[in-house]
Amino acid sequence: MISYARQNEDNEQAAPVVADEHIAPAPRVSVQAFCETVKTAAAVQAAGEDRRLGKAHLKVQMGGMTAAIEAYRTAPTPNVIVLETEGRGDLLAQLDQLSTVCDAGTRVVVIGRINDVTLYRELVRRGVSDYAIAPVTPIDVVRSICNLFSTPEASAVGRIIAVVGAKGGVGASTIAHNVAWAIARDLALDSVVADLDLAFGTAGLDYNQDPPQGIADAVFSPDRIDTAFLDRLLSKCTDHLNLLAAPATLDRVYDFGAEAFDSVFDTLRTTMPCIVLDVPHQWSGWTRRALVGADDILIVASPDLANLRNTKNIYDLLKAARPNDRAPIYCLNQVGVPKRPEISTNEFSKAIESEPIVTIPFEPQIFGAAANNGQMIAEIAASHRTTEIFLQLAQRLTGRAEAKKSRGSFLAPLLGKLRGK
């Protein structure tokens, strides 16, 4: 019999992905769709190109319910069947027919045009896993399929945040480490920093850690990767923050295939609510895959021409590669270096066609002291304005409350009331 997954009974049309919605990726499953309209077939096909269905094998066919019944009379059923129906008609009778040729454990998603709770309950009673109201968008299909393999309480688990510099030396690693610190300390989220710059990574130095093992042990032993193995490689920085450190040695060459880190990321997703990837400034198959596969992306840039060009290129590529996700965000770092000509924030924003999420001023003394002491900015200057900026980034990247506004003067509440009047 077709398996059953609990869904809301209001049966409203699926809403577009919201700003802080987190859809967990689907595992390696087979999905076959039988559509009746070209529009739905196109939406399902587009969903198959979404990063969250990257491991799923999706096949789209026309013919609807009738074609599905005929196909499975002589062939095994996949993990998921997506069926489009244009009317109520013989839908229930056809579902009964399908159940006679459907393998145990197969899940069924029906796309229909009737918004009726009674029909929905009948579909659930017959074992349908989800019912979506047409017309559907690609993100609706992604949500329906992915939610079949995740539980509500796990929806916030495994958010991957990738931080990358538009150019070398712009402070992307420093920002990644301080944001991860704010996520762990201020938001109390269990987090792990994965330093992906195996040759020259600085996470160990910034957190004042010198672990004997780290991410290299995982990447070079893919057959051993599981939760217990990764737990042994993690270095504990605070109660909520762990580090998967880079060896930062040159005794071997770190050339990897595009999928080299997949098993590491997949395993971390199952155990950690938040994974911060410190992505090195290089362009290869695996760095591109890590960025495209992340839930949120932060690009760090300085206000000069090379950074502007690179930020524009990275931003546009990732936005096009992730049409169903939030666009990447970027911040400007090291702003206000004395005697250095800089591109203004307004000009930078016009070129990117997006405002920077924050602007971090050039503060060489506080950042230099923190780096040399192996500390975070919040440890040496808890009330510094940059500490508040890192908290804002942490809140934005984790989908938590909106970034706090600056405190302003003690007259702000009174002035607000006067403006209201």
- What spatial form do the alpha-carbon principal axes imply? elongated
Q: Tell me the strand percentage band.
A: 15-25%
Main beta sheet: strand number and arrangement?
A: 8 strands, mixed
Intertermini distance: 64 Å
Number of strands: 13
Residue-averaged pLDDT: 86
- For the largest sheet, list the strands in their spatial order: 8-9-7-10-6-11-12-13
CATH class of the largest domain: Alpha Beta
The SS-based structural class is alpha/beta
CATH architecture annotation name of the largest domain: 3-Layer(aba) Sandwich
CATH fold naming of the largest domain: Rossmann fold
Please give the radius of gyration in angstroms: 25 Å
Order of helices and strands: EHEHEHEHEHEHEHHHEEHEHEHEHEHHHH
Please give a structural write-up.
Helix 1 crosses helix 5, helix 2 runs parallel beside helix 3 and helix 6 crosses helix 16. The protein is α/β, with parallel strands linked by helices and 421 residues long. It is elongated, with a radius of gyration of 25 Å. It has two domains: 30-152, Response regulator (Rossmann fold, 3-Layer(aba) Sandwich), CATH 3.40.50.2300; 156-398, P-loop containing nucleotide triphosphate hydrolases (Rossmann fold). Helix 12 (305-321) links the parallel strand 11 and strand 12. The chain has 17 helices and 13 strands. The strands form two sheets. It has an eight-stranded mixed beta sheet, sandwiched between helices. The model is unreliable at 1-15, 153-157 and 402-421 (pLDDT under 50). 38% of the residues lie in helices and 16% in strands.
